[in-house]
Amino acid sequence: MNEEKEINENSKNEQLELFRSEDNQGKVMTTDHGLKLSEDELSLTAGERGPTLMEDFHFREKMTHFDHERIPERVVHARGFAAHGEFEVYESLKPYTMAKFLQEPKKKTPVFVRFSTVVGSRGSLDTPRDARGFATKFYTEEGNYDLVANNIPVFFIQDGIKFPDVVHAIKPEPHNEMPQASAAHDTFWDWVSQNQESANMIMWLMSDRAIPRSFRMMEGFGVHTFRLINEKGKAHFVKFHWKPVLGTHSIVWDEAQKLGGKDPDYMRRDLWDAINMGNYPEYELGLQIIEEKDEFAFDFDILDPTKIWPEEDVPVKLVGKMTLNRNVDNVFAETEQVAFHPGNVVPGIDFTNDPLLQARLFSYTDTQLLRLGGPNFHEIPINRPVCPFFNNQRDGFGRQTINKGQVTYHNNALANNSPKTVGEAEGGYVHYQEKVEGRKIRARAQSFKDHFSQATLFWNSMSASEKKHIIDAFRFELSKVKSKAIRQSVVDMFANVSVEMTTAFAETIDTIPPQSGGTNITKSSPALSQELTPKTPLTRKVAVVIAEGYDGAVVNEILKTLQTSGVQTAILSDKLGIIKGSDNSKLEAKHTFLTDGSVAFDAIYVNGGKKADTSFEMEAKMFLKEAFTHYKPLALSNEGKQWFEAQNLAKEPGVLLFTNQESKVFAADFVEAITAHRFWERKVN
């Protein structure tokens, strides 16, 4: 490689370009070493029917590379998808931190974000009930900063030494390697019932948060308590949040299961398509900040990773926006080889004594050493910082830098003691000088031992529909548990959270409902409910169902209004191709009942068509009834209205029937319904 050169913090794209190969179009095939090839389909053999010869260097190179194309997948977060973007801070955060990328408003820092599920293998589906990873790499002028977040703000455990246990418990059971990407089995719920610190996380996992509508509509949380340190050495405790501009939305469990069959790539496809269409996902960075003097001012330990800081007690300050504006060029080279680490920090950001965070500071590097083949994973293009890096580390698997010079050790005279260290004033990283003392023990503070108060707080904060979804999730998960004793242990445990909730699911899983329990917690945190999330029609996906002879005037007016409102429309019929309206208008159907269920859309408009046959009518009825039972907005006119009424479905909230109003008014009402997302008050049984 050429000599290291300084690269501006905003030039990550240019840096990646150095490693990007040319397109193969019009090129002559060569070996990896540049030798032009005359044949690529026949091995070198001794005669037409003879054995393959060992001297066939091209066969050996091609096959050897193929044999080694796979690397170990991540133990957790194996199934991921990623995108490039940029972050821009709103105002200088100099009072809180010396981190340079947070100092100058309008300054853009390149980022790379990887979203993921936690439990499933790389080949699993996108929509299981699971926590989601939300890891962001900031390529700053001071080095890479990694904010390794989840879409749930708490975690199962308080101490990292238990991490292998919870992962072993939730992964497929070792004797039969089942089930894939699911917590609904004996070993996981056995572990939960024996580790009650998990109660708060389980409440989140059973909630709608565990089945997000898309990566674009999903919050991110740094989980741990970190420190911000300013130039004067003053520190503040901080928690990091990502708030999606489109709001935080979810699907329903029946949808999640069906989507897994219809389109196991549903969420990655959604992100890929949105960026390609220019509907760039946006997230605002929020900070919760606590002064050091208030460390013990709350009814929870701020270092406990199983606890949130309620937003009503510690407001979230929105400080910047991240925009994802470019898809990856190669999933393996970028998404699979990217290496995140919560220990990748810059001056002005430091750690706390959160015991789970302390464990992660060791575990991530240790993991990458095996997964990426040695100590030089930082030289893989997607991981390289945009600033130059110099040290005395050498050699090892995958080394790309060709280091010049004689000296490879610190404290030297031959190279004038280069590379040299620098002080804090020159940008050198200095750890916060926290006073630490104590005996060597294996114990946890008493302030970490309240496992149920915040789980109850979460329950109290849910709307009626969200509570029903949580109860249904417990019913589903525990109905899959074969051991009655484990089911009973879970019931007994969650009686400490809410007797009302636990009784509701205990009665359906053949267990004894709790006779007592609960907490005296009446506090709630409205910010925890998705009912109050921002709502917008932007980028919502609507299926427009038409057959031959559709009402062109009404359909085209609705299409025009939807598209003007930022809604994405998809023409769906019983076949692909041109569909003709009664007024000789034409629309191209790119979706069919066979390829796309109602679960793939946020709302449905069924117009029908005068020439629709019996088969089309049957498919359309199933399509709209399914959307009805998933609480989605429905707009119905012409034959679509007749098919709806023929099923004796009631005109429940969110169902719009076209009568004699103007098409524009009908379309505007539909946009308003789409904005509402779901109509949970609808009676679907």
Fill in the keyword field for this structure.
single chain, alpha/beta, Catalase HpII,  Chain A, domain 1, Rossmann fold, 3 domains, 10-stranded antiparallel β-sheet, 6-stranded parallel β-sheet, disordered N terminus
Polypeptide structure, described:
The chain is an alpha/beta fold and 685 residues long. The chain has three domains: 80-383, Catalase HpII,  Chain A, domain 1 (Beta Barrel), CATH 2.40.180; 452-531, Hemocyanin, N-terminal domain, CATH 1.20.1370; 535-676, Rossmann fold. It has 17 helices and 18 strands. The protein has helices spanning 12-19, 57-67, 163-170, 186-194, 199-205, 253-262, 266-276, 331-336, 355-371, 453-461, 464-479, 484-494, 499-506, 552-564, 614-629, 638-646, 663-676, and strands at residues 80-89, 108-117, 132-140, 143-150, 220-221, 226-229, 235-244, 282-291, 317-327, 349-350, 541-546, 568-573, 577-580, 586-589, 591-592, 603-608, 634-636, 655-657. The strands form three sheets. Strands 1, 2, 3, 4, 5, 6, 7, 8, 9 and 10 form a ten-stranded antiparallel beta sheet that branches. The protein has a six-stranded parallel beta sheet with strand order 15-12-11-16-17-18, sandwiched between helices. Strands 13-14 form a two-stranded antiparallel sheet. Helix 14 links the parallel strand 11 (541-546) and strand 12. Helix 11 (464-479) packs across helix 13 (499-506) and helix 12 runs antiparallel to helix 13 (499-506). The chain is globular, with a radius of gyration of 28 Å. It starts with 11 loop residues before the first helix and ends in a 9-residue tail after the last helix.
